[in-house]
Amino acid sequence: MENNDNNINEKRCVLCNKPYNYKYKMFGRRCLDNLYGLLEFSKPPKFIWNKETYLCTRIAWRNHKIFLSKNKKYSLAQKYIALNYLNRMNCRFLDDIKEKISKDINDISVFSRNIVSTISFELNDIYRLFNYTQKFDELIEELQNINWEKVDEKVAENFIKSMSFIFTITKEINPISYAVFYSMQYTFWQVVVIGGMLKDKKLSARLLSNSLSLPEKKPEDLTIQDSITDELLMKSKVFNDKLKELIEKYGKETDMFDIKDYEKDGISLKFEGGDLLYSLHKAILFVKARKNEDNTWNLEGEINDTYDFTEFKDLKEYADNKEAILTDILSTLLNNFGVVSSEYGVIKTYNVKIKFIFSNYEIKGMMK
Ligand SMILES: [Zn+2]
Questions:
Q1: What is the CA(95)–ligand 1 centre distance, in A?
Q2: CA of 141 to the centre of ligand 1 (A)
Q3: Over the stretch 269-283, which tens digit does the pLDDT of each residue have?
């Protein structure tokens, strides 16, 4: 059977792209068989000589189209099969594309002059995307069952690595691939990172969540003032030490100051770890302070930052400040994924403002 001459006219299945040498025009025999099942058609009767043409005719009938030319019938079949695969994908950004393909299907009739494709595609690409989403759905289910607090570091890393395939492409021009990869990355950040790894890091989870928006949408800037964030600040040594430094510098004589009067660009803050480090990367502090009789301080201020995932690179600086398992994984793998998702437009940049008002704040380590 092996014959080099065959390669010249080698036919490849439009679905799986494997070579075949049967009489069919589009599909290998195995794929054609599977398509009958996939589209829920009963098996063709034995006397049907060309089961491929027969399938296309059945598809045309199902779409209430008769007397189509062979070309139209084949084109209709490809669009119909593509739509069927897209409907099976668990992808939230395909509605627009599915609508276009449906319209193209509707527009095929015995009277139509040309076959119009509002959206063009290769069936093989759709088939590959379908297989990616199948694999992704399986993995994401496993990942949802991981306890990120207790999981072994190596195991966790391997899990995250197994998802790399959804980050291996650069921004695709093909709108169908773009939508599918966008959806998988979006789900990854929502489910694995926000719902799993960052479960106990509420501020980071909220900020990352806000940066994930629908395609073509810009996230809104965030202003945050709540007890969770207040507590993070009050517990932070970096925050406390910075206030102490500022009070010693500007508040000694006057017992009150507004940092804007001295440093109009604010004071840069680099957090030491935990939720604040994952949330804020190039934070700028503004604060007004007034001393009370009991040596405590009333503080009112804000911390401003631009949420930009690519700045997670800075996490590598904290490599020796190991904080459980997250630091290590976030600083390497997740950072790379984050950069891809930023380029892809899944993770978007926006401005964050954290406001705080503390009364009777006691500065730790301060001489009375
Ligand atoms: Zn095939």
A1: 26
A2: 28
A3: 988 777 887 788 789
- Cβ neighbors of 166 (< 8 A, separation 6 or more) are 132, 136, 181, 184, 185, 188
CA distance 325 to 277: 15
- Taking residues 230-259, report their average pLDDT: 92
Contact 202, 226 (CB under 8 A): no
Confidence of residue 221 (pLDDT cuts 50, 70, 90): very high
Distance 67 CA to ligand 1 centre (A): 27
Distance from residue 93's CA to the centre of ligand 1 (Å): 27
pLDDT for 48-67, tens place per residue? 999 999 999 999 999 999 89
User: Can you point out the beta strands (E) in the chain?
Assistant: 11-12, 19-20, 222-224, 256-258, 267-269, 283-291, 297-307, 350-361
Stronger pLDDT, 335 or 233, i.e. the higher one? 233
> What pLDDT sits at residue 171?
60
Closest CA to 123 of 215, 33, 245, 31: 31
**How many residues in total does the chain contain?**
368
9-13, 119-123, 197-201: the lowest-pLDDT one: 197-201
CA terminus-to-terminus distance, the chain: 94
Distance from the alpha carbon of residue 245 to the mean position of ligand 1, in angstroms: 70
Between 34 and 325, residue with greater pLDDT = 34
- Centroid of ligand 1 to alpha carbon of 55 (angstroms): 15
3-state helix, strand, coil in the chain (%, to 5): 50, 15, 35
Nearest 5°: phi and psi at 200?
A: -95, 5
